């Protein structure tokens, strides 16, 4: 469902997919071919949520903002099931594992993987191509080229499946 808040209406292109049980609220700005799967909530009530092209936010995930702190999610990003993304920045080509939590002012560098169940505490910053795991999360190592290609293959598969849901 698309819901306005204080005269702000989500901006979602026709190429996007929004599952019937997903809610986009307020100043949400989504890119081309994004997908918002079942029971997703993206709430941009007190700051914007900006989402790049080809990004998928999977079932039961929540994206929210802080007071004047946006949530920025780049292009070609996968947000796994049950993730919580709060007032942080996730750069292009990253994969956020199932059940991960990323808190205010955190930065996930381009082409990184956040492991399932990881807890990224507030203001934590990770460089590009990081493998991030644990609670609290830590940098494990740099990703290989093969792992980075896997991220892009995953996001491409979500773009491909969109037509089957229309």
Give an account of the 3D structure:
The protein has 166 residues and is mainly beta. The chain has a single domain (2-165), classed as UDP N-Acetylglucosamine Acyltransferase, domain 1, CATH 2.160.10.10. The chain is built from one helix and 19 strands. It has one helix at residues 145-161; strands spanning 2-3, 17-18, 23-30, 35-36, 41-51, 56-57, 62-64, 71-73, 78-79, 84-86, 89-90, 95-96, 101-102, 107-108, 113-114, 119-120, 125-126, 130-134, 137-142. The strands form two sheets. Strands 1, 3, 5, 7, 8, 10, 11, 13, 14, 16 and 17 form an eleven-stranded parallel β-sheet that branches. Strands 2-4-6-9-12-15-18-19 form an eight-stranded mixed β-sheet. The radius of gyration is 15 Å and the shape is globular. The protein starts with a strand and ends in a 5-residue tail after the last helix. The relative contact order is 0.12. The mean pLDDT is 98.
Which properties best describe this structure?
166 residues, 11-stranded parallel sheet, UDP N-Acetylglucosamine Acyltransferase, domain 1, 38% strand, mainly beta, globular, 8-stranded mixed sheet
Q: What is the name of the CATH topology?
A: UDP N-Acetylglucosamine Acyltransferase, domain 1
CATH homologous superfamily caption: Hexapeptide repeat proteins
Shape: globular
Label the structural class.
mainly beta
Look at the structure and give the mean pLDDT.
Answer: 98
Largest sheet: 11 strands, parallel
Q: What's the total helix number?
A: 1
- What's the N-to-C terminus distance? 15 Å
């Amino acid at each position: 469902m698309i819901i306005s808040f204080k005269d702000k209406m989500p901006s979602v292109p026709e190429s996007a997919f929004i599952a019937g049980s997903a809610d986009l609220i307020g100043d949400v700005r989504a890119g081309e071919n994004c997908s918002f799967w079942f029971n997703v909530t993206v709430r941009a009530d007190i700051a914007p949520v900006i989402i790049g092209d080809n990004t998928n936010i999977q079932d039961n995930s929540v994206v929210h903002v802080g007071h004047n702190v946006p949530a920025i999610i780049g292009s070609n990003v996968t947000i796994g099931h049950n993730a919580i993304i709060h007032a942080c920045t996730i750069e292009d080509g990253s994969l956020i594992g199932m059940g991960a939590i990323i808190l205010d002012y955190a930065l996930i560098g381009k082409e990184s993987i956040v492991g399932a169940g990881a807890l990224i505490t507030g203001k934590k910053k990770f460089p590009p191509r990081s493998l991030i795991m644990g609670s609290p999360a830590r940098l494990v190592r740099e990703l290989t080229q093969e792992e980075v290609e896997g991220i892009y293959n995953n996001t491409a598969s979500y773009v491909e499946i969109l037509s089957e849901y229309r």
